[in-house]
Structures are given as structure tokens and as C-alpha cells.
Amino acid sequence: MGNVRVRGHDYRAKGYYFVTFCTRGRRRWLSRIVDGRVVLEPAGELLMAAWRKIAEEDPAYELGVTSVMPDHFHGLAIARQSPKYVIGTHVSRIEGRVLHAMRKQLGDPGLTMWDEGGFYDYLSLDMKMLRAFEHYIEDNPARWQLRHDHPEWFRKQYALPHSRLPAETTWTAYGDATLLDHPCLVPVIVSTKISEAERGAQIAQILDQVRRGAIPVGGFISPGEREVARLVTEMPRSRMIKLLPWGLARYKPSGDVATRWLASGRALVLTGFPDGEPTECRRKNCLLNNEWVKRIAARQPARHD
After folding, report:
1. Rounded Cα distance, 38 and 40, in Å
2. Mean pLDDT throughout 58-81?
3. Which of 46, 124, 265, 289 lies in disulfide reach of 176, CB 3.0 to 4.6 Å?
4. pLDDT for the residue 239
5. Which of 202, 181, 182, 180 is nearest to 191 (CA)?
6. What single DSSP character describes residue 301?
7. For residues 273 and 60, what is the distance between their CA atoms, to the nearest angstrom?
8. Where does CATH 3.40.50.450 sit in the chain?
9. Cα Rg of the chain, angstroms
10. Residue 124, pLDDT score
11. Could you give the CA distance from residue 217 to residue 91 in angstroms, rounded to a whole number?
12. β-pair partners for 77
């Protein structure tokens, strides 16, 4: 099993890790969400027992908040000193222990449980980011319930409210609005005026963050931005927030966007422009759109009550 490592980070040093891994095919093995609360299934109970063993086997780690969702797991692990084992080793042990126990319980030696893409670990650089991850994990069941209770989110939504969206305009959208709750949104603004080498380096930096679990947000209008969008769509489990610098009067989700992204909660299409705004790349609209992209990515979302 592989994982998406943070380039340049010494995993045997101190670190704050936001760990995410998923079941294979997003099967709902681990829990149920009832009235916004997690009810663990047997596999989820096994997972939590295995997670707690990290601190028993490697006292360098302090375990933080967790959320065992039906088809994925989030947890915070803080290495207060140099650990005996890197975090990836512990995740591999967790998955192996749960799989072994479930094969035994179900009498199925060929059972597979975990996403072959491995896991994500996002390195928290300061306490502010750490708190944002804590809130995101704690609110995960509430977001799941919101998606369940609001099927209209996958149809056209008018006057979408969210603490991250600039309040000076009215927002129209298609898709899963809870993507705005993720603590790490990476703005995608790739100028046509920079050199090819600079553009390549910027795209690589954006993709590195997306591989670690961040959600890209942008208009995806310039050639460099379109290249980012193309490469993101090829990544397993990736998500995207797209801000269009025109209205949605004639916008209809179709093809891959509708069947794989919007329908599965992996995309949000937004606009701060009125429906009647022409679907063309007006310079003033694109500049304003880029400002909104930066502001949305920079803000931290309010918590769900």
C-alpha cells in the first residue's frame, strides 16, 4: 500500500498529521450516520481499537480527534518527538489488523476492504491549521447528514449561503456545498504571462497539495488552469470547486461532470454572477472571479451547529 507523502518532510521528526483513508469502492463498512451521529459497525469498532494501538506501540504519538465515517476514516496524530515508526507504517498496520479480523469474522479469506490508492496524510504547519483540521473532523458526521437531507444540492441552487463565500454577491451553484467546509482549499490561478518553466512549477505545486487531500478552487479558464483541471480529474478521490465568471442560465451538467463528479459529491460549480451574464471570458469578470477564488481559499469556514 502506498501513500501520498509530503515532499521534503522528515517523517521520523516531529509532525502534526491529518490522516485519511477509505474503504475499497467506498463501501459503507465502518459506520452508520444516525441523526448526525456516528454509530460504529463491527469494522469501525475494530478500526478504532487498532488506531488506539498507535500510542501504545509508539509513545511518541499523541492521538487527536477522529471520525469513523461509513466509507472513510479521518484522524489526527501528533508526533511529539521522533517516532519509532513513520505514520504510514501505523496506517498499514491498522488496515491489516482490521482486514485480518473481518476475514475471520466473515469467513472470507479473499475479502478486500481498503482503497488501493493508499492513504493521505496532510502535514499541519501550525496550531491554527491543526484546529481547522480538528473542526473539520468533528463536523464530518454533520456534513454527511446535510448531504443526505439535501438532495436538491445536486440540482441548481440559488442564493447559496456559506461563510466562505463573499457576501457582496449572490451565489448560484450545482453540487455538494460541503466541499467548502474543507480546511485546505488551494487557489488555482495560473497566469498566461509567466514563463513555461514558472507555469510548470506552479502547476506541480498545486497538484502536490491536491494529492495530499486539498481541494482545488478556480475558474479553470487559462491554459495552465485547464491543465490543472485535466490532471486533477485523473487523480483518484480528487475533488474540485469551479467558479465560473459568467451566469448559469444555460449551464447544464453533462457528461463526466454530471455522471462522476457532481453525482458522487466530488464537485461544486459556483458563480457569483447573475444568470443572465453572458458565457464569455470578459476580462473584468475573470479578474473579479480570481479575487473571489483567493478570498474563498484563504477563509476558514464556520462550524456547523
Report:
1. 6
2. 94
3. 265
4. 92
5. 202
6. P
7. 51
8. 152-298
9. 20
10. 60
11. 29
12. 17, 63
Phi, psi of 173 (to 5 degrees): -155, 160
Classify residue 44 by burial, with Cβ atoms within 10 Å: 0-12, 13-18, 19+: buried
* Among 230, 222, 220, CA closest to 270: 220
Q: Which CATH class is domain 152-298?
A: alpha beta
Q: Residues of CATH 3.30.70.1290 domain(s) within the chain? A: 3-140
Alpha-carbon distance of 35 to 233, in angstroms, equals: 33
Find the distance separating the first CA and the last CA of the chain, reported in whole Å. Answer: 37
Give me the chain's average pLDDT, please: 87
Please give the Cα distance from 247 to 193 (Å, whole number): 27
Q: Which of 117-131, 152-166, 196-210, 218-232 has the lowest mean pLDDT?
A: 117-131
At the fourth CATH level, the homologous superfamily of domain 3-140 is: Transposase IS200-like (3.30.70.1290)
Q: How many residues does the chain have?
A: 305
**Does pLDDT of 179 surpass 90?**
yes
- Locus of grid cell 480538528: 134
pTM of the shown model:
0.72
With 60 as the cut, is the pLDDT of residue 305 above it?
A: no
| 248 pLDDT higher than 80 | yes
With cell 518532510, the residue in question is 9
* Beta strands in the chain, from DSSP E residues, in sequence order: 3-4, 15-23, 31-34, 37-40, 61-68, 72-79, 114-123, 172-175, 185-187, 215-218, 240-243, 267-271
